[in-house]
């Protein structure tokens, strides 16, 4: 409203249309860099927390003229556990735009500050089979879907690495691993909750080693030891890089973390993580 009041509604609408057109043209040029043949990649999640079967994400992209077709046929059916991930096609298109821009943007000299917007929408067609765990039908538990989000990004990386091996990094820790310490007791002061997201190793890059102690969601900041120990009845007894955790290669992966925590009052520990059965894949 403030923009409309300052510049007028017509000017604001015209500006939006220009931004849409620029994003569309950028996406069209990025898609043109892809070969006109199917490109596929798949990766797995350990299980759904109830059954002991891995969950497969299989993704295929194919350029058809100036459009990009995305297909998730071959992905696992919806599951009994809370790992179902209702994938929003519009958000997927925005993620693809951003990954393509990072992988190939320098080749066509695009504006690095031009964010994805509605302009890319009609250039990408997405097919997610109904009933797979990326497009579940009601009722389907979804509370751990954040563990799937990171793996989905890695599958997209795996596809783009086949075309742009000189710019796409190897995969990282793979999910937003997190823990909760829940205080137990009858008194109000005995009931508390400490929740943290832990970092891990970033994938090796074409030009150098991976980032140590990396968290791919940049909205989640490292919680300082002093803060955690002041607010919660816990003691951080070790916080360090984990020796031997970096994958070897021409360029190594990033080191993971050790964060040893002692609860000073009775508590229950809940831990959510991934990549216990499969390792992040490398490139370099």
What do you see in this structure?
With 284 residues, this protein is α+β, with helices and mostly antiparallel strands. The chain has two domains: 1-168, no CATH class; 169-284, no CATH class. The chain contains five helices and nine strands. It has helices spanning 2-7, 9-31, 89-108, 146-160, 225-231, and strands at residues 39-45, 55-64, 67-71, 124-127, 178-183, 193-197, 234-241, 257-263, 267-272. The strands form three sheets. Strands 1-2-3-4 form a four-stranded mixed β-sheet, with helices on one face. Helix 3 (89-108) links the parallel strand 3 (67-71) and strand 4 (124-127). Helix 3 (89-108) packs parallel to helix 4. It is globular. The mean pLDDT is 91.
Question: Layout of helices and strands, plus pairs?
Answer:
Blueprint: H1 2-7, H2 9-31, E1 39-45, E2 55-64, E3 67-71, H3 89-108, E4 124-127, H4 146-160, E5 178-183, E6 193-197, H5 225-231, E7 234-241, E8 257-263, E9 267-272
Parallel strand pairs: 3-4
Antiparallel strand pairs: 1-2, 2-3, 5-6, 5-9, 7-8
Domain Hydantoinase B/oxoprolinase: 2-283
Organism: Thermorudis sp
GO cellular component, one term: cytosol
